[in-house]
Design goal:
The complex is a heterodimer of chains A (230) and B (125).
Chain A (H helix, E strand, L loop, with lengths): L3 E7 L3 H14 L4 E6 L6 H8 L2 E4 L6 H14 L4 E4 L11 H10 L4 E5 L11 H18 L11 E4 H9 L6 H11 L4 E5 L14 H20 L2
Parallel strand pairs in A: 1-2, 1-4, 2-3, 5-7
Antiparallel strand pairs in A: 4-6, 5-6
Chain B lengths: L2 H22 L5 H19 L1 H11 L5 H59 L1
The chains are: A alpha/beta (230), B mainly alpha (125).
Chain lengths: 230, 125
């Protein structure tokens, strides 16, 4: 039996966190849950504590990269075989975790990314967002050698090897894209599985139109620098 | 002695004196003072010896020798700020590691607390 940890990074997600935890408990009762409170100024930590899940509370905001890495460090220390990244804003569905786990077991992959684009779903991003997504997808697929459709997806499952790697090395600012390049360079196998996602239930997306352009340039730069690193 | 020379000597001597004072009072670590000391020393030597300054200026094709002092000071500043950027990067990495460790320690403490509370309860029953 595999020990499974669901890591929920949460920055000011008090509104949606309770629902997320209930969703996870009803769909994946065999898994443990760790909420990483990324220095929230609302009562995110209190909500997590009340629900009785494990809570790692950061003293100040590290950003999604630093928060996720805290989760991987926890998974490493506690000897988990599989870690799942599951956003605290409610856009991921607990019911879809089974798809990731199956793909991880069957596909001989070290990491499985839940992709919104492999299956015809109801996710309709704006034009600019779609443009950015396809540019990332092209660049990443070229580097990694296999097609990756949803590079920015924060819904993913990883095995023990990746847990140990991420506990040591994890990109800081916009880690989803960059971490794939790092894993590929470390010789890990990447796979995708089709999942559905929901629109956000609370809070606001951290990605606004103006930030998207900055985000793109920064991530692409980071990806190319990674390729040059030894 | 011309005014430029006096100003240059006074400037670089003041810089050296300030750096020494900061080190002496423990306000500046030697590790971060080395570049400052070195640049102060080079500027002082070049300000004192007009012939050396003129020689180097001629070699690199600078017509007004004192502007060589500006060039050298500028290059040192670039070097020092670059050094600081690298130092800050290291510090921010360490800072992140510490925050993560504190969060995980706090979690472990919470777990221990609950465990001991459970033990106390079961003993009481």
């Amino acid at each position: 039996m595999n020990k499974i940890l669901i890591i929920v990074p949460a920055y000011n997600e008090a509104e949606s966190l309770h629902g997320v935890i209930q969703d996870l408990r009803s769909h994946v009762p065999q898994a443990d849950i760790l909420v990483v409170d990324d220095g929230s100024s609302d009562c995110t930590a209190a909500v997590a504590r009340q629900s009785g899940v494990n809570l790692a509370s950061l003293s100040f905001n590290l950003g999604i990269g630093g928060a996720m890495q805290t989760g991987f460090q926890y998974a490493r220390t506690k000897g988990y075989d599989i870690a799942i990244q599951f956003d605290g804003d409610g856009q991921h569905l607990g019911a879809e975790i089974g798809i990731l786990l199956d793909a991880l077991r069957k596909g001989n992959a070290d990491i499985v990314i839940g992709s919104r684009f492999l299956k015809r779903g109801d996710y309709r991003p704006s034009f600019f967002r779609r443009l950015g997504i396809s540019i990332f997808s092209m660049v990443l697929s070229a580097i990694i050698g296999i097609p990756v459709t949803d590079t920015t997806s924060g819904f993913r499952a990883v095995n023990r090897q990746v847990i140990e790697y991420f506990a040591r090395v994890y990109p800081e600012d916009y880690p989803e894209v960059e971490s794939l390049v790092l894993l590929h360079r470390a010789g890990m196998t990447i796979a995708e599985a089709p999942v559905r996602m929901r629109d956000r239930t609370g809070g606001r997306s951290s990605i606004t139109p103006i930030r998207s352009a900055y985000y793109m340039v920064k991530v692409l730069l980071a990806v190319f620098i990674d390729l040059l690193k030894k | 002695m011309d005014i430029v020379k006096i100003l240059a000597i006074a400037g670089s001597a003041t810089l050296l004196f300030l750096v020494f004072e900061l080190i002496r009072r423990g306000r500046l670590k030697e590790r971060y003072a080395l570049l400052w000391l070195f640049s102060g020393a080079v500027l002082l030597i070049l300000s004192l010896s007009r012939s050396l300054l003129e020689y180097i200026a001629r070699q690199v094709g600078i017509f007004y020798p004192p502007s060589l002092l500006f060039l050298i000071a500028f290059l040192f500043l670039l070097l020092i700020t670059l050094h600081f950027s690298a130092v800050i990067s290291g510090l921010s990495e360490k800072n992140k590691r510490l925050a993560q460790e504190i969060a995980l320690l706090r979690q472990a403490l919470e777990e221990l607390k609950q465990l001991s509370m459970k033990q106390v309860k079961s003993r009481d029953e």
